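Example record used in the benchmark description.
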Amino acid sequence: MSATSSAATAPTNPADFPQTLGHPRPLWMLFMTEFWERFAFYGMRWALTLYIVAQFFGGDPAGQAYASRTYGAFLALVYATAIFGGYIADRIIGYQRAILLGAVISAAGYFMIMVPNQSIFLLGLATIIVGNGLFKPNISTQVGQLYTQSDDRRDRGFTIFYMGINAGALVSPLITGWLASVVTDTPMVQNYKVVFATTGIGMVISTVWFWFGRRQLGTIGRPPADRDGTKSLLAVLGGSLLAVPVVYLLMAGESSQWLSWILAALLVGVALVMTVQAIGGGKVQRDKMIAMLTLFVFNILFWCFFEQAGSSFNFLAEQIVDRKMFGWEFPVGWFQSVNPVAIVALAPLVTMVWAFLSKRGAEPSIPRKFGLGLLGNAAAFALLMYALTHLVSADNHIPFWPLVMVYVLQTVGELCLSPIGLSMVTKLAPERAVGLAMGGWFMSIANGNNLSGLLAAMISGETGMTVASALKGFTVSFWLLFGAGVVLFLIAPIINKLMHGVK
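Model output (structure tokens):
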């Protein structure tokens, strides 16, 4: 069957999709597309701060603060560009074409960062950022479009999709680390060319997978009728290429303090646009928007502390955690696989718990799930406080197991908040602006990620992380997360009322 005839007979609404394992069949295609994209992202992500210090500072711990700020700015801009990608998909080229174009641009960036030159490295990161902005919000939106608004499988579908994200994140640090040591036969953290080349190949696989699999989506995610042409696609491609040097300039600054103001302004701007659209839809839509934006604020706080994983936690693992076991040293990068391992193991359990409680009318509301996420994150920092106070050895090291359990506790919090947040946006946003709202969700994550880099830089200071600086920073983190979780539980009834029955 030709592509044209296949598209003509393909589903045009969620009810028409064939089902596989109790969910629309395209969910599994999107699952694998996201698996390979996340394989690329996390295969590169674990090495960023370590690489910057090793390559551009000669291994001097004084480079930790710069590396953390750069890492935070990179993650922030990865998510900030999602707002533009969502708008472009909504209004210009559709979700399917946005995903494909973003995948191609991202793949180019992964191969660029192989070059051990700081300017080209930052330019490669900027290219990944622009591509991810087109890819990330729109593939999540496509998942939401597989279900009707009243379909109670929607949250579970997003949790399954979230497992795809984390399955890729699970295997990529293990594979890229192993390949680096085997292929070059030198210390693992020095072999970034192999790491980055492998992630580029993963991004190419993601692109090819979606190219062939998108036919299952039919007309869902196609461009608006008046924009279904080559001219619109070329215009977006040209705009994306022009955006790369702009993002590079944002990445190349000596300090990301000023970037915080830009990101905050962008989030406020998005919130205002969404609010104006919601007001036009009446009181109910206005209330839903207020509820969604309130949860965005708590989302910022969650990710500010969760994303210590790739910065301060990396330096903690490298310098303060005793990683020696049976004559073998556990690689720093492999800690990044603990979180996805825990997600793959715990996501089905969490899904079953929500389903069990739902049948009995006792499933927590969306705000209370968010509150549980914040408290789970707080518990992780409480464990670090205990370890850095009571488990420090004579040579200023803490045992291996507390950091592993920190990742597990953060995972519990993440499963209560992140997939639920994705689903929440598709439920509460105005139908004609779901892509924009999804971009707003990722903009809130962007603000949290940038703050995470600033926090990690403060913890490391000018001379690098110490037991004392880590304990001080992680103690503040605990109290902020714990307080926010308690507040959210207290105001949950108010937010639920604003949601007008959305669960």
